[in-house]
Amino acid sequence: xxxxxxxxxxxxxxxxxxxxxxxxxxxxxxxxxxxxxxxxxxxxxxxxxxxxxxxxxxxxxxxxxxxxxxxxxxxxxxxxxxxxxxxxxxxxxxxxxxxxxxxxxxxxxxxxxxxxxxxxxxxxxxxxxxxxxxxxxxxxxxxxxxxxxxxxxxxxxxxxxxxxxxxxxxxxxxxxxxxxxxxxxxxxxxxxxxxxxxxxxxxxxxxxxxxxxxxxxxxxxxxxxxxxxxxxxxxxxxxxxxxxxxxxxxxxxxxxxxxxxxxxxxxxxxxxxxx
Length: 275
What we know:
Layout: H1 11-27, H2 31-44, H3 50-62, H4 69-84, H5 88-105, H6 118-128, H7 134-149, H8 162-176, H9 182-197, H10 200-220, H11 224-227, H12 230-246, H13 253-269
Helix pairs in contact: 1-2, 2-5, 3-4, 4-7, 6-7, 9-10, 9-13, 10-12, 10-13
């Protein structure tokens, strides 16, 4: 079943693409770009906006997991009903303004950002489309209902296969203008996959990585350059405390950013020798 999908007109996709853009800006410590992205999100997705309302329709279908069949079908039916009441002309105008701002303030490359649940968002968009045939619509609805019933999204969310991941890493490396460390690639792999597996594997890996990084940083306090520098010693202890706090914290973009930077720090201290 091949159905054309205009991702620029998919409100949820554009929102997720902006979130990914902000994440990369944070990781690069590019405050100017991060502030531009956040400004666009605040302008177009505030609580009273049409785009926020449209985004909520998508979220009702892709954020609800582990529901029973009857509840999932009721939610889908109600969302479709409310979506049909939306002024489609006005929504189109608001989407056009958002696209224009992204192109002007950032670049059209934002629309090429890797969004882990792209396939699910595209499926929902086709369910909302009046151009989708009744037969295709029923097939797509069944797919979404199955997702809503499952703890782990099976098939409907984008499978993070090697090709998809390698493409993402390549783009990520190009933005950083340098190669990622193996442990950073591994962390990002689990992070991307976490959108489809309830973050279970990410949590396991992150706990192990936090333990490794804390051990390395504790050992680094014996290194002459750190041991004899009061300021560096203090900062090292602060990073160790920060990592310790992450063991019970929710996994957020800030946590990911800090761990990635710490991985680079440890690599620098040990000159690439992590044995």
